[in-house]
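Input for the complex:
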Amino acid sequence: MQDIRVSFQQLFNTSASLVVQSPGRINLIGEHTDYNNGFVLPAAIDKSVQVAIAKRTDGAIHMHAIDLQESVIVPAVGIQPHATSWVNYIIGVVAQVQKYSATASNNSAALDLEKGFDICIQGDIPIGAGLSSSAAVECAVIFALNEMYQLGLSTMQMALMTQQSEHEFAGVKCGIMDMFASLHGKSNQVMLLDCGSLQHHYYPLDLKEYQIVLFDTQIKHALASSEYNTRRLECEQGVGILQKKYPSIKTLRDANKQQVDELLKTEATLIGTKVYNRCKYVVDEIDRVQLAVKDLLAGDIKAFGQKMYDTHEGLSKLYEVSCPELDILVNAVKDNPHVLGARMMGGGFGGCTINIIKKSEVQAIIDTVADIYAQQTAHTLKVHQVKIAQGTHIK
Ligand code: GLA
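Predicted:
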């Protein structure tokens, strides 16, 4: 990749005022729990997005995606969702920042923002692979705007605002995990995030003679956004029923297995077993994350890995967000004694599996899985070996 400052200079004929780098994320366990106020265990990775930015004075936002070689210009006032998805990851954030600074006591930033800016982006996070490339763009953009316009936002505010931008401009009613992990990641540490309170703790990830390997189905999961939103609604439907008897249940985080069995299993004939299955998975998974962290702290990677397999089973059978290719990849390693855990990661319907594999066996296992994947699907396996890295920062 060319130095982004050089590209910026060539594109806009002026120097960038700053460059911000924001990482993608992995998630060890805790999937589809974030929007249910549950726990997740993500970490930022050494694949990232960079943005270079400088102010303009003519009221236009000039954007360029270096990897796609696409340019788009929009007026800085009256921002609306755009037909091009990468553009929305930028302007959606601008819209949030404008909303925020319009209500701030000193609205000079809002006025300054209306004068526009130049921005270019590049990165090495595979798109649609479930590694949160979109959140990385959004976090890089908000971090850069915060710095350039001296907005004084905390990273917590930035996480919430980028999540809102994803809801409004990308149409995905995502949880907080991806943005939070991208903004708050620390090298070599995973974070246990309570998505209800946003309290988080870092734990060193010591996998001993094992390492993380991602197997990429190369099925892009972009089309899954509507199913994603449906899952969210199904969870809310479950909460609605539980609430009638237990008014203190506001989200699935507040519910336990007995309550889900008592009310949703018996109601299953009326509401369909789907809602029961979705809620059962979520309540189980929220418990599982907490137990998995105990395994990790006790150094019991085997028990941790087994929970990853259990998560995959739930995501595939009960939550129904897997796809045949992801299941093939998990099945390909399930009985291998050198793979302690494997599961689909992220929103689902494509993207990657995350695997915990014995270091000495990694290459042999990659070869075997690639063969199986080629035989059983029409796609070629891609492999990503990632390290846990620092969150969003100025370069
Ligand atoms: C996507 C969303 C996250 C989270 C995961 C599933 O990555 O953006 O908020 O819900 O799916 O755990």
